[in-house]
Amino acid sequence: MEIGNIIQFNNANWRVLDVREGSVLIITEEVVEKRVYHSKRVPITWAECDMRKYLNGEFYDRFTGDEKSRIITVTNKTPDNPWFGTKGGADTDDNILDFF
């Protein structure tokens, strides 16, 4: 598998972004679903937002057991935003991340 390849996974096309030590970072080629980051307009971090709960819950549960066994959990570090002065929030352990 090489960077730039397109693979089929969970009935979608995914582009390979990186390959390291037997692990592959992929991103969908299509928009999977349009959703808001959070349902209320309040200060919120990734750790508490609705998008994270959806991606690591309902969306993740759409994968088969075999597919889930191929998805690794990663620690997502969310540093403070120096341009807007907002807090990044707590580090999270996620199976699915949103690139926004």
Biggest sheet layout: 3 strands, antiparallel
Q: N-to-C terminal Cα separation, in Å?
A: 26 Å
Which of globular, elongated, flat, extended, rod-shaped describes the shape? globular
Total helical elements: 2
Mean pLDDT: 90
Q: Which structural class do you get from the secondary structure elements?
A: alpha+beta
For the record, the count of structural domains works out to 2
Protein described:
With 100 residues, this protein is an alpha+beta fold. It has 2 domains: 30 residues, no CATH class; 68 residues, no CATH class. The chain is built from 2 helices and 5 strands. The longest helix has 10 residues.
How would you briefly describe this protein structure?
With 100 residues, the protein is α+β, with helices and mostly antiparallel strands.
List keywords for this structure.
100 residues; alpha+beta; three-stranded antiparallel β-sheet; two-stranded antiparallel ribbon; 2 helices
Strands, helices and their partners?
Blueprint: E1 6-9, E2 12-20, E3 23-28, H1 50-59, H2 65-69, E4 74-76, E5 92-94
Antiparallel strand pairs: 1-2, 2-3, 4-5
